[in-house]
Amino acid sequence: MADVPAFATGVQGVDGVWPPLPKAWSYSSLRAAEECPRRWALSRATYAGLWTRPGYPPRPILPALVGDVMHRVLELILMGLHDRACRSLVDPCAVEVLRSLGGYTALTSRVIEEHIAPLEANPRVADRVAGIRSALLLQVPAIRQRVQAILTRTDLRYASHAEHGSDDTHRRSLMDGSNPEVELRAPELKFAGRADLITIDETGCSITDYKTGAPDPHHADQIRAYSLLWSRDAEVNPENIPVRRLLLSYATHDEWIRPPTDAELGALARQLLERIAKVEGQLRFRPPAARPALSMCRLCSVRHLCEEYWSGPAASALGSPTLDFVDCEVIIVSRNGPRSWIVETDVQPRSALLRTPTETPGFAPGDKVRLLDLAQAQDDDTSRFTLTMTQASEVYKLRRQGAS
Fold first, then answer.
1. pLDDT digits over 25-82, tens only?
2. Which residues face 6 on adjacent strands?
3. DSSP 138-153
4. The listed CATH number (3.30.70.120, 1.10.600.10, 2.40.160.20, 2.40.50.140) that belongs to domain 318-397
5. CA 289, CA 267: separation in Å to the nearest integer?
6. Is pTM, for the whole model, over 0.85?
C-alpha cells in the first residue's frame, strides 16, 4: 500500500513513475479507472525513457480518431455560429460562418491535420502516420454528412446579454442564450466535465451532448452527471437555474433524457463521492489491481505492460478456433526462412511458425517477446500452427532474467 512512485515493467527499456490522483475526475476517466485501475495507472504514468509527454504513447484507433475529428468540427462550427449570433444553419449568417471556416471539407481536413500532428512525435506510430492520415482523409465525406445531419437539428438561441471572453481564471455566469463548450465544475465532489451546448431560456436550462458513435447506455448516465455539475457549479450557474431538458444528439437521431429530480441529484452526488473514494483507494496500491478480461484487454493500449493479462486472457486465447487475431508471448527459437521463425510458447500449441513482414523484425533467436495483434491459423498442408504479423502488429522484447 505504501506509495512507491517508480516502477519497472517486464518490457525492456520501459520504466515509469506512477501518476498522481487527478485534482478532478471526469465521467470517462472515472469509468476507466473503475473498469481497470491498472490500465488507468499504466496509461497515465510517466515514461521518461520513451518520450517527454505524460502517459504511455497511445495507439490510435481509427474509429475513435474519426469520432474525435467529427466532434472538433462540430465544436468549431457551433462556436462560429454562436459568435455571429446565428440561430441555425438556415440563418443567412451561417453561410458566412462556414465560408470563414473554409467550408466543411477544408475544415475537416484541417482538423485531421491537427490530430495527426501529435502522432508524428509518438514513437509507437511515427512510422504509420502517413497511412493514418490517408485513412482519415477517406472519411471526410462521411464526417461531413454526419456533422451536417446533427447541425440541421440544432437550434441556437442568441445570448444577447452574455459576457464574452471567459478565460480559466474568470469563468463567467451564463445568461439567456446558447453557450457551446461549457466547462462545469463541482470542487466539493472532485468532479468536472465539459458540456457541448448549454442553452438557457425563461423556462430553465437545456444541456445537449453530441455523440459521434453509436448509442450507448452510458451516454444517458454521462449527461445526467452534467446535470449534477450544472446544479453544483456556482460560478457558471449562480442563480441555480434548473435543468429542464437533456438531449443526446446522434448523427441519425436525437434522444431526450429525463432530467434528475432534486432528490435524484442528491443521490447521484452521494454515489459519486463513494465511487471516487473507492477508486482512489484502489489506485493507491502499487501496482494497482488489474481486472483482466479478454473483451476489455484486447482494446487496452498498455496491455503489453500488464503481467496479469499475459498469464490470463492472452494465454487462453492462443489456439482458440473462434479468434482470428491474438496476442502472444513467445521465445524466438530459430530462423526458419528469410521472413519466418520457429517460436515456442508457454501454452498449447507449444511450437509455432511465426511469419514476419520483414527480414529484420526487431528480435533474434533467444529473445523472449510479446507480440500484439497476430493473425493465427492452422496450416492445412503441414498442420503447423502459424502466427502472422500484420501491419497492425507490435513487438516488445522482454527483460532477460536477472536484468534490471
1. 999 999 999 999 999 999 999 999 999 999 999 999 999 999 999 999 999 999 999 8
2. 17
3. TTHHHHHHHHHHHHTT
4. 2.40.50.140
5. 28
6. yes
